[in-house]
Amino acid sequence: MSAPRRVRITSPQTRIALARRHRPAQHLLPPTIQGPDDRDTTDAARALFADQRRQAARTLALLGAVLFGLSGLLAAAPALSRVTLAGVPLSWLLLMGGSYPVLLAIAVRHVRRAERLERASAPGTGTGTGTERAP
User: Residues 6 or more apart from 91 whose CB is under 8 A from it?
Assistant: First the structure.
């Protein structure tokens, strides 16, 4: 007598996730917007998406430079740990009091630039390419 056949049971979400693995990464592209000029609208959306990805890469590079630069500064200048202000080592003050405002400024700058790119690519404003340089 043979053993009963095993049945694999998965949830619908698991089946969807497993099925997505074999398809190209279409979820990384903006959806097609239906309108009178479908091709132009889709191309503009993809151009905006590419501009925002470039902006995100620049922001990540700046973030890495700040974090690794501060770590490198503290490693290169161990004397900063011996200097104290109000009983707190200067290296701690740099890490806690100096890095967080810089990170906040980087985040605010990134959001403003991403919104500026969206406004520049909106229909009826500017050239619509979204490639204008943000200050």
Answer: 74, 80, 81
Instruction: Provide the token pair at 110.
Output: 């990134």
Report residue 15 as tokens: 């089946």
> How far apart are the C-alpha atoms of 75 and 78, rounded to whole Å?
6
- Domain containing 44 equals 12-121
Number of folded domains that form the chain: 1
pLDDT tens per residue across span 25-70: 555 555 555 666 666 677 777 888 888 899 999 999 999 999 898 8
Q: What is the pLDDT of residue 29?
A: 58
- Which residues does 50 contact at the CB level (< 8 Å), separation at least 6? none
Nearby residues of 10 by Cβ (< 8 Å), 6 or more positions away: 18
On whether the pTM is more than 0.90, the answer is no
